[in-house]
Amino acid sequence: MINSPVARFGYVYGLDGLRLLAVLIVVIRHYEVVMVLPGGLGVSIFFFISGFLISRLLLAEEHKSNRPILLKPFYIRRFIRLLPPLLLMGVVCVPLLFIFYPADFSLIQIALSFVYLGNIVKFGALVWGWPEGYQAIEPLWSLAVEEHFYLLLPPALLLFKSMRSRIGLFRLSRGGAWFWMALAVIGGCRPTVRGGVDCLVF
């Protein structure tokens, strides 16, 4: 039973503990309870969980239907799941933020954040001096990173159908990301390491 396809693609209870750990790390760091605790570690755990689950979902669909992944239904499901809550947040929060904190208004931040390009805003603020805008919607940069992964993974699985080619793609992506991160750090561009999809792809 454990080695059956159903078991392999079933619910992973251990991820609940990882989620709790990630939440605690992020909350503790934001409230500065323990300054040495890296809040980025909690975000990285969330990225890992999200990437792992969406990969299993796509592979399970491929295994169950015994056919290539259908991109259109996948993206429609992602759209229905993610976009309505994001728009609701924007409709409620952005006007309130503008009313109470007009000095922090940044059209660049708002526009890019709500089309899943918030990581570019964060990078631009740190590197090019873009207006930082509202701290309340800054965390959308992490949602942008996840969305970019959703956009890239399904086509990659369609192009690389065999297990050998997928393992090769994984190794190439991991090695390329590590190499790119090293170049970014050496070149003094550390913000890329934290928010760039090219560095976080591993």
Automatic annotation (TrEMBL):
<dbReference type="GO" id="GO:0000271">
    <property type="term" value="P:polysaccharide biosynthetic process"/>
</dbReference>
<keyword id="KW-0812">Transmembrane</keyword>
<keyword id="KW-0808">Transferase</keyword>
<dbReference type="GO" id="GO:0016020">
    <property type="term" value="C:membrane"/>
</dbReference>
<feature type="transmembrane region" description="Helical">
    <location>
        <begin position="37"/>
        <end position="59"/>
    </location>
</feature>
<keyword id="KW-0472">Membrane</keyword>
<feature type="domain" description="Acyltransferase 3">
    <location>
        <begin position="13"/>
        <end position="166"/>
    </location>
</feature>
<dbReference type="GO" id="GO:0016747">
    <property type="term" value="F:acyltransferase activity, transferring groups other than amino-acyl groups"/>
</dbReference>
<feature type="transmembrane region" description="Helical">
    <location>
        <begin position="79"/>
        <end position="101"/>
    </location>
</feature>
<dbReference type="InterPro" id="IPR002656">
    <property type="entry name" value="Acyl_transf_3_dom"/>
</dbReference>
<protein>
    <submittedName>
        <fullName>Acyltransferase</fullName>
    </submittedName>
</protein>
<keyword id="KW-0012">Acyltransferase</keyword>
<feature type="transmembrane region" description="Helical">
    <location>
        <begin position="12"/>
        <end position="31"/>
    </location>
</feature>
<dbReference type="InterPro" id="IPR050879">
    <property type="entry name" value="Acyltransferase_3"/>
</dbReference>
<dbReference type="Pfam" id="PF01757">
    <property type="entry name" value="Acyl_transf_3"/>
</dbReference>
<feature type="transmembrane region" description="Helical">
    <location>
        <begin position="107"/>
        <end position="130"/>
    </location>
</feature>
<keyword id="KW-1133">Transmembrane helix</keyword>
